[in-house]
Amino acid sequence: MSSTLWFIRCSQGHYAALQAEVEARDAHARLLRLCNDDVLIHMAGELSRTTEAFAACLHEDAGENLEELVAGLARAGAFEQIICFVSNLDTEHIGRLFQSGATEVIATSGAEAPRVHAQGRRVERTSQADAMQCSDVQDDPAYGGGRCDASAAPASKPAERETVAHAQPPAATDDLDEPEAYGVRARERGRDWQERAASASPKEPPAKRRAPVVVAVAGSGGSGKTTVLAALAVCAAHAGLRTALIDLDLMFGDACLLLGSEEPGDIGALIEPAQHGALSEDDVVRASARVAPGLTVWGPMAAPERAELATPGVERLIEVLRRESDIIFVDTSTHWSDAVASTVSACDRCLVVGNHAASSIPSTKRVIELVQRMGVARTRMVGVLNRFGAEGCDEEYALRFEMSCALSARVHIAEGGRELNDLAAFGQLSQALERQTPFARSMSDYAMRLFKELGCPVVDDVASSHAAKKPAPRRRLRLPWDKQAGDAA
Hints:
alpha/beta; 2 domains; 8-stranded mixed sheet; globular; 17% strand; Rossmann fold
């Protein structure tokens, strides 16, 4: 009889409970416990090449965030079930778990996973291959074997829990079309779940949604980082997202020029207001330039010599835009100012852009190490190989680049050629993306995948094709998307 291989991701203290949960569902399950998210995502990518089905049971400890791990496993396409244990009733967070690809979320009322027991039966393994678990963090990270005994779990009363299967909480998906497959019963379960969640913590208002921040970095100049990020911002605006683009190449940035604006906003206008506390609407609008419907750009600085003074204003600007926009893109420079370092350390996704230049691979490795030292996990990084398909940037080079980066998430952006360079030079990057070229297709495909991974409110029929000429109908903001191009407060 064939059996399913279940990947268990939890601490040692929660393993017995998750083991019993899995065996209650699948008596013949084989279990493999892992402690490292990077290893789990890497193995998921390798398993996607096989025809066998797998499942995952994940536990979220305090301070952790499962969303990126779930998204990585869902992308692999090898997992029939992805079950998540969460220790709080945050409706927004659980909604994002479902959007990332979770098939079931079990919200426990306590800080630990429920103590589920095999009633009257002793579960033993006959071989190490049937019950593998990795050692603790302090031990050798290689996989080790061991026996797992469900009866060893304490005989305490199971913690009360609520289980939601295939149902997205309405509060987290107001801007999305609900897939028909969920049906009426799923919507009813979602409403029941939301009511129970509200009654469990009546004094805590639901947290407001915060727009994700996507940062692009590169180890050397000329990688095409600004073009890639500006193209992603255009794709976001075309998909109906309220998009903010911040150019943190504060001295000589040219993101506005690529998008057709000859009057870039001066982010230096935020220096004095930031010294007095929160930014006002007029402050934010004065520093911006609206370059297209739904797309507004901040930066660089009109006085480059003041670049080192911009950090407080940039930090406060991002806080405002997290509340007022759907997604934020931040371009950087090869010189890391305090503003760049602060933004990178707080980003939701870091795009590490390289190409086939002679120095690209060693410089990309160095910038990845720097980003890690800033506190960004490798699971939040994406290795972006730009100009794929150009002379010298073939499959063999792409493999070398990916092995050097050693990132589980990676993407290839096709070479745009002379046509892209000519259009970008005249500020017509948006027109370049409307053409059916390898560059436009690769950018559009990755953009829509990125938006869904981050939980952005992209409607499926818009996301299916970048060729949609009209943006999805969405509520627009007073700040600062009301302003016309070149307007100043």
